[in-house]
Amino acid sequence: MLRHAFLPFALFSAAALFAANPTTPALIDLTYSGDQSALDAVDRDLTAAGQDPAKLAAIETRLITDLRRASATFAARQAICQRLGLLVGQSSAVSGNAVKILGALLVDERDCDLARLALEPVPGPAIDALFLSAVGKTSGRPRLALIDSLTRRAPATAVATLIPLLAENDVPTAEAAARALGKLGGAEAHAALGKATGLNPAVLQPARLQAATTLPAAEALSALREMQDNLQLATHLRASALRSALTLDSANAGRHMIEALGGNEWTFKEVVLESTNATRTRERAELLSGKLSDWDAPTQIAVLAALARDGEATTVTAVTKAAKHPDTDVRAAALAALGQLPGNGDVVAQLAAIAAGEDNAEAKLARQSLARLNGPGVSAAIVAGTERGDPKLRAMFIEQLALRNMSEGLPTLLAFRKEADATVRAAAVGALGDLAPAAAQPTVLEWTLGATDEAEQGRALRALVNITLRQPAAERGHTVFAALDSAPADVALRLLPALGRISGTAGAECAARLAMRADSKLAEAAVTALGRWTDASALPSLATVAEQAPTAVLRDSARDAVLRYFERTREAWTPATTAVISRLLAATQDRAARLKLVTLLGRANDKVAQKLAESLKPDATVGAEAAYAAAAVKSRLAGAPKPRASNESGIDNIFDGKTSTRWNTPALGEEWVEIDFRLSRPFRRLTLDQSGRGAEFPEHYEVYVTDDVKQPGPAVASGVGRPNKTVIDLPAGTRGRYVVIRNTAERKDAPWAICELYVD
Q1: Alpha-carbon dihedral angle through residues 380, 381, 386, 387, given to the nearest 10 degrees
Q2: pTM surpassing 0.85?
Q3: CATH superfamily of 642-759
Q4: pLDDT for 505-539, tens place per residue?
């Protein structure tokens, strides 16, 4: 059965691309996108013919007849040539007519490509002869195409045919012949390319280089070395010659590498260093390290990087010597390399000394390499280094226990609590914070409580927090909270910053208890800590302080902390939020503060909040604000706002409570967003939040508030959008069921986006 090959520039499927017409068209009328049934019929006949010579010959005759018809379309001729090429591959079963026809088309400017692509896959000297003959009978584009085919077929006689073309006056032909000879290769082609004159060197020399690599090894090396040393050639070609020579002459590659690295041509150095990376051997690594100190600083830096990749232990001595080089960059490269080479006690000592030194940049590199270092005795040397010597050096070794995650060093670290030197104690407790399990919390808490040195106290507190955060959520921090409750004021003040890191409701309640203590400094610090809480879990505790603190200053501070929290966040309102506002209102007499609290109540969405707002309407000081809040809450209780937009995709994102999602649209000056709030309600302010999409604000907006979107009336506000947040203040008394926001001007540099729409 014949297998159908497909031409590169057009595919004819055996399955119809379109439904067949009622009347099957002739093959000669075939088009690329039309009815394929005639071609399907031919393919079915070929499949059915199998290896039957008579049937195949009949199909061949039919195809040739159609090919000769003047009315045959180009698509038909292409399909026919393709099938004739398949038949030629079955030459024992068919006559030579297909070969003659396709051979004739090879020299036809119109159909050369059809014949070439049909015959090119067919092997054999007879087909080679057709191509070789056709090259001499054509010119221009067809001849270039035939040269390309000869390059792919690579018959033995192609070189002899192509060599005379190097002297052609037609430049494209001469250059195509040079490229082909380079690919075909061999001594004859290489010699001809070497003698060619008048050709563009950018074409000739790469071809000659390619041909050289096909020569026998000795001849190839001689030719490549000649090109490498030829200063008249482009640098990249000389470098390519060197690269090929290194591959061919692996036995002497090391010597040539050393020569190149000692020279002045940086491109050659890059080539040999690439070679070491591609074919790493211990011998090459040792050769490079042995000569390392002979080279200039840039070369040493490059070689050090190569030695680091090799990872050979035998190069460590040379690299440690380079770490003392006068050049800063060489030292840095050596320090980085040491972290990737097998280590030992001596390397540990050298890196540690630098890590504990005064040069901050080199100390950082040394610490990083020491943290990566592996090898016999490395861990033991680090543990031993923590126990004796200069305190600063010991502290550096202690830091390494944590950086290397050496849990076997935990007993050593715990023992350092009794160490006389504060630097060592601080380093040890800091490392415990990285290494110790949650079960070590009581020990680290005790250490924290007893620390006297300021640096040690700070490191101990951070360690205590880190270990506490490893505890299960249900029991997290309880030991710390109990210690704070019973600690003297000065100690509690020192431990207080841990609460904000541990966070949570229990932590906030502990801070509230501290705020009730008699010590004013501690109480103020506790309220400040609660005001910096990152989530709403501190709000009930702040309300407690506002209700029960012994001084008015503390009570006001707690209340104001709640107000500041709502200034910086617009998280989803919950019944618990309503409860906090209710408690604060009951505990607050200040008119301005009460107004702010009632204003916040307007963000609520529960019946308790609505009832509270309604109860405050008779209050002369906050009644108007309470009426506003009651109407806003009533609107929310009627259901979530229903947004629509000129571009509906993503519009629900503006009310999903996440600034990581958004609605956006190209800003052409005719976009709009419409929100149905279910009930008519008052409006004071709209905030278009573009968090994270700061530049995607409306170019110019108009706002309409109405009970009838078909007759919205005049705009109640207009203006220019602002980066990050566009805040739109509406006139007093603005009220309606619908809000429509229109962008009325084009933005060429960014779309219009809304991450969240906040309504006040």
Answers
A1: 80
A2: no
A3: Galactose-binding domain-like (2.60.120.260)
A4: 999 999 999 999 999 999 999 999 999 998 999 99
